[in-house]
Amino acid sequence: MTHRPLEEPLRPVRPHPVDGAWHRPPEPDQVDPAVLSALLRRHGWQRRGGAAGRYGRWTPPGPGGGGTSLLVPESRAFPDSDDLLGEALLALTRSGTPSAREVLVGLAVPSDEIRWWRDVPTGPADSTPWTVEEQLRAAARQMLLAGALATRARAGYYGARHRRAAAVLLESVLVGSAAGGGRLTAFVPVGTGRPLAVRLHQALYAAREAIDYQRATGGMDAFDGAVEAGVSRELTEALVALVRGTEGARIAVEWAPAAGVPADCAAGVEPVEFSPGDLPVLREAGARFLRDEPSVPVRITGTVVRMHRSGPRGDGNVRLRVIAGAEVPHLRVSLDEEDYRIAGHAHLVGLPVRLHGRLESRGGFRRLSGAGGVVPVQVDEAERDRLMKSIQGHGESTAFFEEACSGDD
Fold this sequence. Notes:
five-stranded antiparallel β-sheet, five-stranded mixed barrel
């Protein structure tokens, strides 16, 4: 049985609603005029006059925006406020500009916005190779995953730990279209994802400070403290992927106007910048995190899904599907002859087992070393039936008891 490599990205986060059916704007009575104005300003719209204290006239960014304008009331204090909001929202839905769609997304799903820019060489008429956008999306996805992992625990290296919970958190993230392969925006809903945006914001600034410290002093000590802010090997790898092949890259986190600025964070800060000169430091920090992350003592409960040993007697290797005790989906375990026998009997009667050992950082926290004390765990008949059907449903029972096979676990 093979394992997914650590470098392989998780499934793509789902696209934002403008990539699918987006026929209705938010209802005017659900829109705060101040929030709409803040979103228009954020996405490059320009206020060009209007009746002071009553409404503002906004035009879209870019040279083609002169013929379009929105009248946005400054408050609901006047009788025509809902009418003006309705007309503005309808105009936004009919506009083909990316900025209009992003404003609508920000209104429909109050979100913190994470933006990435990559300064990449361009070809004729500012064209870019098709791989450039793919590289940007992959790096952004890696960075979101690193931020999601840091909301679960602080570690220099996560490996396979906490990935299921992090993937669930990423499911709520909405992603915009890359602009020419050099810019990308992710919308992180405040209700479900603000901890992710906050942690990533703090981790990026901590990484920048640690890099500056290393480049000034030659010491890597600042990366030790940066772990508490969310810096990890996963984040340094994401930054390397973002910066590699560019002249520089920037990341900014902008807070949802409807929710305000979270505690311990600042509003209106400049994007965090990284350059190709930072790459050696980032790679060294990633290797250091991988080397120094300690093994973890754990007590695991899991179901046996595969067994292998070279002969009819002696030590053997077992693969467990983890139920409790560690934030990883599967583990490989080496057992002595007696523990191996107990694990096999437990599998045959449909019972999980409990054992102790140390979760090793080598291999991504997928192996339990020093394992022992295997005991069956009693469950009721309904749960036993469910476990047996789960194993059979995954086709793993056919791979069980590979006593004579030479394949690796």
